[in-house]
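Dear support,

We are seeing what looks like truncated structure output for some complexes. This example has two components. We would appreciate it if you could run it in full and send us the complete token output so we can diff it against ours.
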Amino acid sequence: MSGTRLVDESLFFDPPGTPPDGVRLAGGECGGCATTTFPAQDSCPRCGAVGMERVPLPREGRLWAFTVQNFEPKPPYRSSGPFVPYGVGYVDLGPVLVESRLTENDPARLRTGQAMRLCLVPVFTDEDGVQVLTYAFGRVDEGER
Amino acid sequence: MSVDGVAVVGVGIHRFGRIEGVSGRGMGAHAVREALADAGLAWEDVQCAFGGSYSSGDADSLVSDLGLTGVPFVNVANGCGTGGSALLAARNAILSGQCDTAVAVGFDKHPPGAFNEDPANLGLGAWYGQTGMMLTTQFFAMKIQRYMSEYGISHATLSRVAAKAFRNGSLNPYAWRRTPLSVEQIAAAPMINYPLTQYMFCSPGEGAVALVLTRADRAGEFPAPPVYLRAVEFRSRRFGSFEVYSPWLSPQRAEGPTVEAARAAFEAAGIGPEEIDVAQVQDTESGAEIMHMAETGLCAHGEQEQLIAQGATEIGGRLPVNTDGGVLANGEPIGASGLRQVHEVVLQLRGSAGRRQVPSGPRTGFTHVYGAPGISVCTVLSR
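Here is the complete output from our reference environment:
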């Protein structure tokens, strides 16, 4: 078997099969205090209100903080093939800062405040051969990968 | 609390590191026996006990080794705050009149390598672990990366903090890492999570610490000079603070639990951060020591760069920090870590810290732990 799947569909606003350049992350927005969470959740961590609305998050933002994961994590981390260091950062999307993998893994090519754009990246392959995708952010000045 | 309601009259430690053939519980029992001997007490004199471990079993099972005396023994579990929570509970038991003499104990024995927590334990989806984001090391790296750009902290300062830790550890017979490393060796070590190299991170390890506490008005009856627990305060995170294991942050920034716990502890003690003679702060990695120095109020944000370059945080400096080598040199057995800090301050205030003794005759001390999922416990102690 082959093909792809999203690591967790609830992270995404748009249905599976949406072209990668159209995919948006799903946040939760509180009708009471306008707090936005990621992922979406049922109750508001700020005011305690229940019944948050699922909303699409902006696809572009600014890098707020970053690091590079240089050692292979233990399970529950899943991987396929040899370990390749990956970037991790917080991207400020306006209503919320989202923690994300970064497509860039060279810290010399990352800086706080850099413009970033959402994309999908393969993270591991299921036993049946299906490639599993998650969200990541890449540098806007590099264009789409 | 009344200002000087509770005193530490006994301290015991099992050396930290990797110890073949001794269980975590065995180390815990050893630490309790040492603390009782220090206080001149027997286990049957203990009227209340509080303790915890993260991966070495239930602390209350220590009664099988120490004696089945019927003592109420409460298990405590607050991650890296476990020791601090045990101390808080012991203090409260004495202040409430439940007992006159209590023991707080913490021990642990972790396998090598970074902790691999199950995201479900923190209410996070499996994806967070599967995609490689469930790592405490990433949080500390990102926090110091941003902090360095905001406050002008240099990469060299990160190395200096680690070099101090191993230098102090080399003077501490209970420490794990007792070989000094140069600033150059630390800077050139493999990068773990940018900007932090291998020697800038602590490792999960093994060890145990126990304290005997009693009413302050009885403290003079014990063999060792009493050290008074002037405050112990615990805070969890508020909305808007930047904490470990956070898939998202609010654009609205709030002070973290360290700031609030430290402020509350200084207020309760009636002692200000500028009056502290020796401090132990959570140094999960060298950036954490730098940031926590300012978050606790011991210095201003950005001031660390100069303080550390000038040697102010060395044992002979103006503000000695992590005199026993901290978590960097001792490793982190989660249950024991917070109590190790108090153990070190007690020795320093007694003047019995041996080769690592702060020379100026310190009268006041401070401890701070930070842990997942955004908690902090701080204490203020004095002679």
